[in-house]
Specification:
Blueprint lengths: L1 H25 L16 H5 L18 E4 L3 E4 L2 H5 L5 E2 L5 H11 L6 E4 L3 H13 L7 E6 L4 E6 L13 E9 L5 H13 L2 E7 L7 H5 L2 H4 L4 E6 L5 H6 L6 E5 L11 H8 L6 E3 L5 H25 L1
Parallel strand pairs: 3-4, 7-8, 7-9, 9-10, 10-11
Antiparallel strand pairs: 1-2, 4-6, 5-6
Amino acid sequence: RRVRWKRTWSAMSSASLASSARVARARPARPVCARSARHVSRAPRAALGASDPEPSPSFSVPGASTLEVGDFAKLDLGRTERTGLPEVVWGPGKTPAQILQIMLALRDRQNAVMATRVEAEKFDAIEHLWNETNAANTGCLLEYDPVSRVALLKRDAENEQDAPKRVPVPGVLLVLTAGTADLAVAQEAATTARAMGVDDVRVVADVGVAGLQRLLCRLDVIRQADVVLVVAGMDGALPSVVAGLIDAPVIAVPTSIGYGAAMGGLSPLMAALNSCATGVTAVNIDNGFGGATAAVKMLRAAAKIAARAARSE
C-alpha cells in the first residue's frame, strides 16, 4: 500500500508540473515597465514638503505653511486656518528647552499656546529657563496647572492686542467625572476647552454610578449643557447612564483608573464603544485633550448651523 501511494502521488505531482509548464508557455510575457520604481522622479517628494519648498501651482493647500525651530521641530502654522484648532505641544519626549522654544515660536502666530502632559519637575526646568533667558520680559505670562499638567503661554493685558484674536466659542460644555481620581483627565479637558475659546466650561466631579443619587440630584445642571464630556474609569458605566438621561451629545473619555481587570482603561473604553445608549462618542484612554477638541468642534458646528438658519429667516 505504501508503494502504491508513493507511485500515485508521484504521478499526480508530475501531472501538476506538466500542467504548470503548459500554462507558463501559453501566458504572454509581461512587458517590462519603462518607468520602474527605481526611476520614479523625486519631484513629488519635494512637492509634498519634504524639503519645505515654497507653495507651487501644482501643490497648493490653504494653511500649508511651516516654521522650523532649531533642528528638532517643524511647526504647522496653518493648522488653525485648516482645522479651526491651533497646534499644541505634546510634552513627553521633549526637553524643557525644546518645549519652551516651540511655545515662544508660536506665541505671535496663534491665539492659544499650550503644552500638555508636562510633569511638575519638567515645568520647573521650563520656568527656570524662562527666567534665565529673560523670556519673562516678552509681554507674556507662563502658567501651569499641576492637576491637568498643562502649561500655557498667555499674553498679558498690555500686549494682548499684538496676538492673534481669540475667537469665542458659544455654548455650555460640562465635564463630569465618575470619581475624584479622574480629575486629572477632566481638568486637562476643561483647560484645553477654555484655551480653545469656550468660556462656559463647568466641571462636576465624583458622580459615578456607585452612588447614582449623586448624579440624579445634579440632573438639572447636566441638562443645561450643550455637550457633555464624561470622564470615567473602572467599569466605565457612567457615559451610558448619562446618555440615557439627556439629549446633548456625550463624549466618553475612559481613564486608566481601576484594578487589574480594568486593563489600564481598556475595559471602560470597550464599555463606551459598546454602549446601548445612543449618541455616545468615545476617545482614547486618558485623552482629555482629544475629548475637549472634539467638543469644541461640535459647539462650533452648532454655532455655524444657527448662524445659517438666522440668515435664511
